[in-house]
Amino acid sequence: MKILVVDDEVLMARLFQQRFRKEIQDGTLEFEFATSAAQAQAMVDADGADLVMILSDINMPGMSGLELLRNLRQQGITIPMYMISAYETGPYRRQSEELGADGFLPKPLDFDSIRALVMGRLERP
Amino acid sequence: MTVAANDDFKLPTPVFLVTLACIIIGVATALAVDLSVADWFSLAVDAANLTLILIAILVHVAGRIGPNGLIAWCGVSCCVNLLCEVGQNCILPGLSPDIAILIFSCVSLVFMGGLSLMVDRRFAPGFAIGTAVAVCAVWILRPDPFLAYWGPLLLAANLGCAIVFYSFRRRLENLVSETRLAQQRLVTQEKLAFIGTMSTGIAHEIRNPLNLLTNFAQSSEELLEELGSIVKPHLGSLSESEHSSLDWLYRNLAANLRDMQDCGRRGDAVVQSMMHHGAGEKPVYGEASLVETAERAFNLAWQNCLMHNPALQCQTRFKTAGGDIRATVAADNICRGVVNICANAIQAATARQAATRNGFVPTVTVDVYLQGDMCRIVVADNGLGIEPAVQKHLFEPFHARHGSGKGIGLGLYVSHEIFVVEHEGSLEVDSRPGEGTRVTIGIPGAWRVNENSGG
């Protein structure tokens, strides 16, 4: 089960690898990382079929996470996408819902919740 | 803010036109009859006229009539005076003109002097000269009964000018004060918007590294546990001092990582507080229920405090009497301000509970009532109270009294800006160390509706 994490913060990759080390080690989960929305778009275009979930930050230089979400939905790509932002309240949450995001994760990230989310997705047929 | 057009500038008013018509009629009558100079009747009429004008000015200064009312009153009074003057010259001719003119001149000079000072000191010489010319005209022309009337006419014109200038001055003063208020309100809104943008921006920038810090610390704690479980079977091969050193290192590393997570959580509480201050966008004014707004704010404050301290215990009471209270306000900002004050009250009351631990029951009450047209929202707690030295700086930004991790010290500053500057209301803090604090918010221009509901 491959998950794409999009965040301009490069340390995020190491954090995910550490927090999901057991799932990665036993082959339950596989993570791919993109440090920009454009890179994520290219990755989805090139090899998006395997992806079961996208976790994307909203505030990134260049294309934002919301633009990435809009582009993917316009292309008819329905991979479950969860938006991440330090702006917990306000318009981001609403915009994410309007553009077709499956959920909103505020920072600081709660990895127990993310794990529950991912495992819930994994158990679905 | 727009300054509404005011009819104070619509001159001449119909009253002035009537006055002018009366003067023309008076002159025409004077031309038609054989005139003599002023007598005791004239004096009585002049005195009555001056008294009337004086009363009009006093009533105007007291704020009971506007500039137009003042002009109308004085215009009618002068007009009646002139007509009486004409009439008495026709009916009661022949009484000592010199004495009459002398008294008339003195009264006129005193009256005009006072009036010119009321208008503006800079106009005083002009009015003094105008009055002097009028009086001289009366004196010089007194042998000619007809020409003597030009003196009172000049004086009336002078008086009219003084009143017009006075009304202009009052209007200008009002305009200046309205402009100043609008300017002040605009600056406050800009300031609040700046605080909002700054707080949200900083909060976001801090939250990203804070997220990494807290999560890496948590992850490292787990990794350390794993490391411990791997190393544990091999501890037997170590010497006692090596074992002791390793144990010390392990325990301290684990403690450091837990402390880092605690610090991260405290930092996040501060960030959340900053984001709360940043919630304000451009205020939208509209009619709103102040009772509902205060109750919503109280609940929000309670939820916020509960989020940071799930074990929170505090007796809360919201009361209002006699139905809803409404006003035209920026309700979201009012809510922000009340949330700040209620959150402070809850924190102060629970802090005292933590300090005493002897069955003390922390209590916070919010009372909303109407006093005249002022809606009062009183937030009272039985908390620690505020030291006099701190009270002096209560409304200054970044003077937090909650201690580390509990806030950034913008709450009361923002509340003050919202209630006092933006809504031209009031914010009073009455606090006694060791007894509690009572914060009274005043929001002007409120009215009551639906007497039968509420409670």
What does this structure look like?
The complex is a heterodimer of chains A (125) and B (455). Chain A is α/β, with parallel strands linked by helices. Chain A is built from six helices and five strands. In chain A, strands 2-1-3-4-5 form a five-stranded parallel beta sheet, sandwiched between helices. The two termini of chain A are 13 Å apart. The model of chain A has no long low-confidence stretch (mean pLDDT 89). By secondary structure, chain B is an alpha+beta fold. The N terminus of chain B is likely disordered. Chain B is elongated and about 130 Å long. The two termini of chain B are 36 Å apart. The chains are: A alpha/beta (125), B alpha+beta (455). At the A-B interface, helix 1 of A face helix 6 and helix 7 of B.
Strand content of chain B: 5-15%
Q: What's the rounded overall pLDDT mean of chain B?
A: 73
Share in helix of chain B = 55-70%
- CA radius of gyration of chain B is 38 Å
Biggest interface, chains and residues, is: A-B, 16 and 19 residues
Q: Report the average pLDDT across residues of chain A.
A: 89
Low-confidence residue ranges of chain B: 1-16, 34-40
Q: What is the number of strand segments of chain A? A: 5
Structural class of chain A, please? alpha/beta
Give the ordered list of helices and strands of chain A: EHHEHEHEHEH
Q: Determine the N-to-C terminus distance of chain B.
A: 36 Å
Features:
heterodimer; A: 125 residues; alpha/beta; five-stranded parallel β-sheet; 5 strands; globular; B: 455 residues; alpha+beta; five-stranded mixed β-sheet; three-stranded antiparallel β-sheet; 11 helices; 63% helix; elongated; disordered N terminus
